Amino acid sequence: MNFSGELTHPQWEGDQSLREKVLQQIRFDVVSGKSPPGMVLSVPGVARQLGISTTPVREALLELSSAGLIEPLRNRGFRVVESSLQDLKDLFTLREQLETYALITVAKTGLKDKEVLEGLADAIAQAVQEGNVHDYLSADRAFHHALVVQAGNRLLTDTIMKLRDNMRLYGIDSKEGLVRQHASVKEHHLLVKLLSQGRQAEVSKLICVHIRDWEPVFSAAIVKSATRAASVA
Question: Is pLDDT of 13 > 60?
Answer without folding.
Answer: no
